[in-house]
Write a structure and sequence with these properties.
Strand order of the largest sheet: 1-2-3-4-5
Helix content: 10-25%
Radius of gyration: 27 Å
Shape: globular
Order of helices and strands: EHEEEEHHH
Distance between the termini: 59 Å
Largest sheet: 5 strands, antiparallel
């Protein structure tokens, strides 16, 4: 049909059927669509964090010392969450970069890998997840660390690799 033609009953099909047709995607404009519910995203990766330091990580990474893990655990916003897969490396700037995952008591993975930095007698949150999940000052402000630098990236990659071999 051209724009200047008038539709006729014999040649045109109604644009909106008067009753819903189960095989058609067309809806009656007077019919209100049922409310849709937005699916809630749920974290489903659960495992038991492996306490054994895996072979094959970057040789600069070692298992994080318990005092650093305890300090970061104490600074987590949710007291039910804990640190897992904690690795540390001494950065070229002299600071300790700790990469770790955050899990809940059931082993549900909250964050796969985040990075904190210990320097000048304090712990600082470096990655976005570390800043969101803990109460520490930003490392980029307090220590002026490079969040795209090799030390940060290596700590993050080591924690991620340990989480992966643990089943996350």
């Amino acid at each position: 049909m051209k724009d200047d033609e008038t539709p006729t009953a014999a040649t045109s099909e109604p644009l909106w059927p008067t009753t819903p047709d189960a095989t058609s995607a067309k809806l009656n404009p007077t019919t209100v669509a049922p409310p849709t519910t937005v699916p809630q995203l749920q974290r489903t990766a659960t495992a038991t964090p492996s306490p054994d330091f895996p072979a094959g990580l970057n040789p600069r990474c070692t298992k994080a010392p318990t005092d650093l893990v305890a300090a970061v655990n104490a600074g987590l916003k949710d007291r039910n969450h804990t640190i897992a897969h904690a690795v540390v490396l001494r950065g070229s700037d002299g600071f300790e970069y700790m990469g770790a995952s955050i899990v809940d008591p059931a082993g549900l993975l909250i964050q796969r890998s985040d990075v904190w930095v210990r320097g000048r007698g304090k712990v600082y949150a470096a990655s976005g997840g570390a800043r969101n999940e803990s109460t520490f000052e930003r490392a980029s402000r307090g220590l002026d660390v490079d969040l795209a630098g090799v030390d940060f990236v290596t700590a993050d990659e080591c924690a991620r690799a340990w989480a992966k071999v643990s089943g996350y």
